[in-house]
C-alpha cells in the first residue's frame, strides 16, 4: 500500500513515516500545498492508496512554521496552512482517486478547540458532537473552523490530538514543555501519547471504513502537577517549579486558556471493529491505553535514555551476556570491551560444543568475567544480577543448528525456551534492568518466497529450532506486558565471520576446501539465504542497546542474497581457482523441511542510525583469511552440517 503524507518533515508526520516504514508500507512525501492543483498533481503522479494530512506548524518541505499560540500577526499563514491546505487535500482526495471511491484520508486535527466554563466540572467530557467554543488564539480559531468544514468530506478521519506526548524529549512534546515552566497552572486535560495513538490512527486509515471526527486521545486524564511529580519520581530528577495558587489559576481561566477533557468513547468503539490483520500490521492494542500508565512508562524510558547517554560519556554499564563464548556472542563481547572499556561484561556460558573460551580476545581484561554455568539455573542468574548490579541483559545463548533440532528437539526446548524463561524470571525478581535484549532469528518468519518481511509479519516457524525461538519471543513479550520488563528483540539473517563453529555453511565449506575434501550440499543447493558479516550484526545489537525502544522488534539483515551452490563456487574460486566446482561438491539428502528463502526489511533498525557496512566480497575474504590463519581453533570431528 502506498501512503502520500503531507508534512513528513514535521514532528507528527515524521512519526507516521517511521511507523509505516516499520510496517513495510511505501511512503512518499507531498509537496508544499498552496492550491488545489498541488494536491491534484501529487495524486496523479503517485496514485496513492491512502493520504495523511499532518500539516500545520511545520510545512511538508521542512520549513519551520509559526507557532500560532505564541506569535501574533500571522493569521494569513495560519489560514493557509491550517485551513486551506487541509481543505485542498480533502477535496482532491475525493475527486481524483484512482479508485471509484475517494481515497481514505487522515487529517490531524486538534482538541485545542474547547474550554470549560468550570474546569472542575468533568462530569460531561467533550464529545465529537460538541462544537468548538475556544477562541483564545488565531490558531485555535482557525483549527476550529477546519474542524467544522472538513465534516463535508465523509472519507476523511478528523483525528483530534490533544497535548501530544512522545517517547523522546522533542520540543513539541508536552512533557518537555512543562518541564521548562517555572510556574504551572495544574488543570485536568486529555492527552495523546503518540506511540499509543498513531498506530491506531494508521490502522483506521488502512482499513478505509472510518470517517468523521474522533477524539484521538488516551483513556483518562491527568493534571500538570501529576505529570511533574511522576517525572520526578521515575527519573530522580529534581524539578524547580511553582504551582500557582487557586486565585491565580482563576485569573488565567478568565483569560480564556484552553483546558479540557475529551471523551474517548467513539475512539474505543472504532477500535473494536478494526480488522485483525490490520491490527497486527500496526501493533494496534486491543484496548485504548491508559494515559497515566503510558506517561509512567515514558518517564521510565526517558530516565533510561538519559542514563545511557551519561554512560556513553563515562558512567559504566554492567552487562550480563549469555552465550558470550559462542560465535556472535563472543564477537559482541570483544566489540564491547574494546568500545566501552568503562563498562563491565559478565559472560555466562556453559561451554558446549559450539563455544570456545579462545573466542574472547581480551580474557584478562579487568572489565570482563566468565562464569561457566547454564542459564537454566534461575537462582544463579538472579544471584549474578544482584552480585554485579547488572543494568542490561544481552541474551545470545541458544541451540541454533537446524539439523540437530530434527533429531534432538527436546534439547532445543530445554535451552531456548526453558533457559529463556529462567532468565526472564530472574530478571522479573531482580526488577532493576534497564534493558533486556533478546537475540532471535529471521527463521521465526518461516519461508518468504518473494520480497522481504517486516517486524509485524505473522510468525510461521517451519522447523523445531525456529519454533523454540518463536516460543522464547512470546515469553519475552509476555514479561514485557505482565511485568513491564523493558525488552527489545532482534531477528537476524545468517551471520558469518571469524570464530564461527564450522557446522554452518560458510565455515564448513572453508574448512572442507582447506582439508582438500568435497563440500556436501543439501538437496539441489538452490536454497537462498541472506548473509551478514558478524561485525555488522554486532554493531546492530550495540545500536539497539543504546537507542532501541522498549517493546520493539528490529530485523538485522543484509542485501547479500546468495544460493548455497553460489557460495561454494565463490569460496572455491577464491581459495582454489584452478579446481572445478563439479569436482569439489557432492549432493546429499535434503533436510526434512528446508526453507527455500528468507529475507527481512531493516527500516526500523536503520531508523536508529545503523547501516550495513561490510559487503559480502570483503567479508568473505576476511573470513577465509581468519580460518587460514587459525586452522586449529576448532577441532573438526567430521559431523558438521552444511547449512
Question: What does the model show?
Answer:
- This protein has 2 domains: 2-166 and 191-221 and 261-290, Rossmann fold (3-Layer(aba) Sandwich); 312-630, NAD(P)-binding Rossmann-like Domain (Rossmann fold).
- Helix content is 40%, strand content 15%.
- The strands form 6 sheets. The protein has a 7-stranded parallel beta sheet, sandwiched between helices. Strands 2-1-3-4-5-9 form a 6-stranded parallel beta sheet, with helices on both faces. A 3-stranded mixed beta sheet has the order 17-19-21.
- It contains 21 helices and 22 strands.
- By secondary structure, it is α/β, with parallel strands linked by helices.
List the keywords.
21 helices, Rossmann fold, seven-stranded parallel sheet, 2 domains, globular, 643 residues
Poorly predicted ranges (pLDDT <50, ≥5 residues)? Answer: 57-70, 252-258, 636-643
CATH domain class name of the largest domain: Alpha Beta
What shape does the CA trace take? globular
Strand order of the largest sheet: 13-12-11-14-15-16-20
Q: If you compute it from the alpha carbons, what radius of gyration comes out, rounded to the nearest whole angstrom?
A: 28 Å
CATH architecture grouping of the largest domain: 3-Layer(aba) Sandwich
Secondary-structure content class: alpha/beta
Summed up, the helix count is 21
- Domains (count): 2
Q: Find the CATH superfamily of the largest domain.
A: NAD(P)-binding Rossmann-like Domain
CATH topology of the largest domain: Rossmann fold
Number of strands: 22
- Measured distance between first and last alpha carbons: 35 Å
Seen as an oligomer or otherwise, the chain set is single chain
Helix content, binned percent: 40-55%
Strand content: 5-15%
Mean pLDDT: 85
The largest sheet is: 7 strands, parallel
Amino acid at each position: 500500500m502506498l501512503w502520500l503524507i503531507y508534512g513528513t518533515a514535521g514532528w507528527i508526520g515524521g512519526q507516521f513515516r517511521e511507523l509505516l516504514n516499520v510496517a513495510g508500507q511505501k511512503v512518499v512525501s507531498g509537496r508544499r500545498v498552496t492550491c488545489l492543483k498541488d494536491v491534484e498533481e501529487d495524486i496523479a503522479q503517485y496514485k496513492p492508496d491512502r493520504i495523511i494530512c499532518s500539516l500545520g506548524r511545520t510545512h511538508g518541505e521542512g520549513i519551520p512554521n509559526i507557532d500560532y499560540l505564541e506569535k501574533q500577526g500571522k493569521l494569513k499563514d495560519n489560514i493557509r496552512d491550517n485551513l486551506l491546505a487541509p481543505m485542498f487535500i480533502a477535496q482532491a482526495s475525493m475527486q481524483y482517486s484512482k479508485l471509484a471511491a475517494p481515497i481514505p484520508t487522515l487529517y490531524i486535527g486538534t482538541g485545542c478547540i474547547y474550554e470549560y466554563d468550570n474546569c472542575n466540572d468533568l462530569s460531561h467530557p467533550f464529545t465529537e458532537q460538541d462544537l468548538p467554543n475556544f477562541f483564545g488564539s488565531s490558531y485555535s480559531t482557525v483549527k476550529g473552523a477546519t474542524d467544522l468544514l472538513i465534516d463535508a468530506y465523509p472519507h476523511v478521519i478528523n483525528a483530534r490530538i490533544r497535548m501530544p506526548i512522545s517517547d523522546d524529549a522533542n520540543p513539541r512534546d508536552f512533557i518537555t514543555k512543562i518541564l521548562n515552566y517555572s510556574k504551572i497552572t495544574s488543570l485536568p486535560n486529555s492527552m495523546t501519547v503518540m506511540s499509543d495513538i498513531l498506530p491506531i490512527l494508521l490502522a483506521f486509515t488502512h482499513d478505509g471504513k472510518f470517517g468523521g471526527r474522533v477524539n484521538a486521545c488516551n483513556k483518562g486524564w491527568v493534571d500538570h502537577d501529576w505529570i511533574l511529580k511522576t517525572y520526578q519520581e521515575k527519573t530522580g530528577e529534581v524539578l524547580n517549579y511553582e504551582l500557582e495558587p487557586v486565585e491565580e489559576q482563576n485569573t488565567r481561566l478568565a483569560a480564556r486558556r484552553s483546558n479540557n477533557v475529551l471523551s474517548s468513547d467513539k475512539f474505543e468503539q472504532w477500535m473494536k471493529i478494526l480488522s485483525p490483520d490490520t491490527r497486527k500490521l500496526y501493533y494496534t492494542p486491543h484496548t485504548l491505553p491508559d494515559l497515566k500508565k503510558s506517561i509512567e512508562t515514558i518517564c521510565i524510558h526517558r530516565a533510561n535514555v538519559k542514563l545511557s547517554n551519561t554512560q556513553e560519556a563515562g558512567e559504566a554499564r554492567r552487562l550480563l551476556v549469555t552465550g558470550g563464548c559462542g560465535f556472535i556472542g563472543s564477537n559482541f563481547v570483544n566489540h564491547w570491551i574494546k568500545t566501552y572499556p568503562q563498562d563491565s561484561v559478565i559472560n555466562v556460558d556453559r561451554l558446549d560444543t559450539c563455544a570456545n573460551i579462545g573466542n574472547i580476545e581480551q580474557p584478562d581484561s579487568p572489565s570482563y568475567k566468565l562464569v561457566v554455568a547454564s542459564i537454566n539455573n534461575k537462582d544463579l542468574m538472579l544471584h549474578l544480577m544482584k552480585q554485579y548490579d547488572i543494568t542490561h541483559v544481552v541474551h545470545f545463548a541458544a541451540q541454533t543448528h537446524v539439523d540437530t533440532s530434527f533429531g534432538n528437539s527436546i534439547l532445543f526446548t530445554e535451552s531456548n525456551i526453558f533457559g529463556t524463561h529462567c532468565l526472564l524470571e530472574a530478571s522479573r525478581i531482580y526488577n532493576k534492568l534497564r534493558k533486556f535484549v533478546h537475540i532471535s532469528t529471521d527463521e521465526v518468519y518461516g519461508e518468504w518466497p518473494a520480497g522481504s518481511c517486516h517486524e509485524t509479519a505473522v510468525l510461521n516457524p517451519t522447523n523445531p529450532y525456529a519454533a523454540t525461538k518463536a516460543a522464547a519471543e512470546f515469553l519475552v513479550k509476555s514479561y514485557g506486558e505482565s511485568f513491564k520488563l523493558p525488552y527489545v528483540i532482534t531477528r537476524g539473517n545468517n551471520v558469518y565471520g571469524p570464530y564461527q563453529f564450522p557446522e554452518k555453511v560458510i565455515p564448513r565449506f572453508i574448512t572442507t576446501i582447506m582439508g582438500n575434501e568435497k563440500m556436501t550440499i543439501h538437496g539441489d543447493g538452490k536454497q537462498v539465504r541472506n548473509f551478514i558479516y558478524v561485525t555488522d550484526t554486532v554493531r546492530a545489537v550495540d545500536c539497539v542497546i543504546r537507542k532501541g525502544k522498549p517493546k520493539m522488534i528490529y530485523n538485522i539483515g543484509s542485501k547479500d542474497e546468495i544460493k548455497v551452490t553460489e557460495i561454494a563456487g565463490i569460496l572455491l574460486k577464491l581459495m582454489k581457482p584452478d579446481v572445478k566446482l563439479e569436482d569439489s561438491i557432492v549432493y546429499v539428502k535434503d533436510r526434512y523441511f528446508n526453507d527455500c528463502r528468507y529475507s527481512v526489511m531493516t527500516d526500523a533498525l536503520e531508523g536508529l542510525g545503523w547501516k550495513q557496512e561490510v559487503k559480502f566480497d570483503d567479508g568473505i575474504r576476511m573470513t577465509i583469511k581468519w580460518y587460514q590463519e587459525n586452522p586449529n581453533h576448532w577441532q573438526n570431528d567430521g559431523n558438521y552440517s552444511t547449512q
